[in-house]
TrEMBL record:
Pfam families: Fic (PF02661). Residues 340-466 form the Fido domain. This is Fido domain-containing protein. The lineage of its organism: Bacteria, Bacillati, Actinomycetota, Actinomycetes, Micromonosporales.
Length: 473
């Protein structure tokens, strides 16, 4: 069971009695009889002996699988004991210490499994934090309900409620990797509690927050305001009047998107940061034209593969099960043949994000906490499709094609979230179509490749070639 499948009835604290004083004893009682697995111990200075490297990697894979299997077993045991609501214990919602500091007690099996005693304490603490979060949500729901019946008053009430909910979730999670999915879920729960008719709650929330918020990026005040206004308008049929204006300076000392200089009707759905950031996508498109793709590497003949799948191994170690499921689709498409298209990329991304919608973004996008900007133009989807079509051009050496499509996805940034994972899937498809499966891929996937350096683009192509040669050897 995952929290994405839970309704408010499944998690409502009023329907599920809970004794916080017994949690630590329960966790110890339901923990796997096999004990807590060994913690992850990464040392970047470790030098692997080539003679034992394969055995070392095999042991590490088995240890990593054991850690994630233990987390899954603990999840199942807690759900069996407490009910479905307990599935959120590993949703990475932080809790407060006695001095008010936000603490994340569970951050996945790899990072949070330490000594047996500390690990069980972390599980218990994470479950308590999740329960506290649900109780806070219930209190917030009750405080904002019932909503007014009159349309204008209802619009104001919905706008205030949505903004409060988004801010509450972001504050509790520290805006880490998982805050955005939990935020969307909390909004859907409130729609349910508020008895909003129909079964289109997912679409309502996606239309309001999709493209505005991202995992691992703290939302800005203006973005929260625009999301709240969007959902309120969709629910009430009322849009703000053109003279709707907010103060020119927001409390965080940056210009408000609702300033007196710009009427509400003209606002774009996405608010850029106040600092002017160069267009990373424009830089990449220039470098893409200038790079010597045909000469950066030589041609490679497949098949080239071993019993290891480096890209799958990379995501398995991080517990990215949706990506592993998407990789299965990529393999099927690579075996079926044909070009790389946006439709294929979109189908894989839907699997990665666990959604039925993963369209091309319709606004400018940002990454790295606002330090990179990917501007939007109306011709961008068509330009991206043309770039994807070049990914299987046999006249360009395979390493260059794979590197180029990897960077295309990163810098065209077609999706609202998960573009790095999408880039890895595109590279996997291009290589797999020629019968190549890299035995080792973590260095490629964990390295930041600049957009504006032709030597970096050609260097990535040569690095892919080196990884293929390493796999062949």
């Amino acid at each position: 069971m995952t929290i994405a499948t839970l309704t408010w009835a499944d998690v409502d604290p009023a329907r599920h009695p809970f004794d916080p004083g017994t949690v630590h004893d329960v966790v110890r009682a339901v923990a796997s009889a096999g004990g807590v697995p060994a913690p992850y111990r990464y040392n970047r200075f470790t030098v692997f002996d080539p003679a034992t490297a394969e055995a070392d990697w095999s042991r590490e894979r088995a240890a990593e699988e054991a850690r994630w299997a233990w987390q899954q077993a603990m999840d199942a045991a807690l759900v069996e004991h407490y009910g479905g609501w307990a599935a959120g214990w590993n949703a990475q919602m932080g809790g407060r210490t006695a001095d008010g500091a936000l603490v994340l007690r569970w951050n996945g099996a790899r990072d949070s499994i330490t000594t047996p005693e500390e690990t069980l304490e972390a599980v218990a603490g994470a479950l308590l934090d999740w329960r506290t979060f649900l109780e806070d949500l219930a209190e917030l729901f009750a405080r904002h309900l019932p909503l007014p019946a009159e349309s204008s008053a209802a619009f104001v009430a919905w706008e205030a409620t949505v903004a409060t909910l988004v801010a509450a979730v972001a504050a509790r999670s520290g805006a880490d990797e998982h805050w955005y999915p939990v935020c969307s879920l909390a909004l859907k729960w409130f729609l349910d509690v508020a008895e909003v008719p129909g079964d289109g709650h997912d679409a309502l929330v996606e239309a309001a927050v999709g493209g505005r918020f991202w995992s691992s990026v703290s939302p800005q005040g203006a973005e929260v305001a625009d999301a709240a206004e969007s959902l309120a308008a969709a629910l009430t049929g009322i849009t703000p009047p053109p003279d709707d204006a907010w103060p020119d300076i927001w409390p965080q000392d940056w210009p408000s998107w609702r300033s007196t200089e710009l009427p509400a009707a003209a606002r774009a759905p996405r608010t850029p940061p106040p600092v002017v950031v160069p267009d990373t996508l424009a830089a990449w498109r220039r470098i893409r034209r200038e790079a010597r793709w045909e000469h950066a590497t030589g041609h490679v003949e497949g098949p080239v593969r071993t019993h290891r799948d480096g890209i799958a191994e990379h995501f398995a170690k991080r517990g990215c099960r949706t990506v592993l499921a998407a990789l299965a689709l990529v393999r099927e498409d690579a075996n079926a043949g044909g070009p790389l298209t946006f439709a294929r990329l979109q189908a894989w991304q839907q699997q990665v994000l666990g959604t039925t919608t993963a369209g091309f973004r319709t606004t400018s996008a940002w990454a790295r906490a606002g330090r990179e900007r990917y501007a939007y133009r109306d011709d961008l989807p068509a330009a991206f499709e043309a770039c994807l079509a070049e990914a299987t051009d046999p006249l360009v050496p395979l390493p260059s094609r794979a590197a180029r499509v990897f960077l295309d996805v990163l810098f065209f940034h077609p999706f609202a979230d998960g573009n790095a994972r999408s880039a890895a899937l595109a590279l996997y498809f291009v290589l797999g179509s020629d019968g190549v499966v890299l035995a080792r891929a973590a260095p490629l996937l964990m390295t930041r490749w600049p957009a504006a350096d032709p030597r970096g683009a050609e260097g990535l192509a040569r690095f892919v070639a080196a990884l293929i040669e390493q796999t062949r050897r």
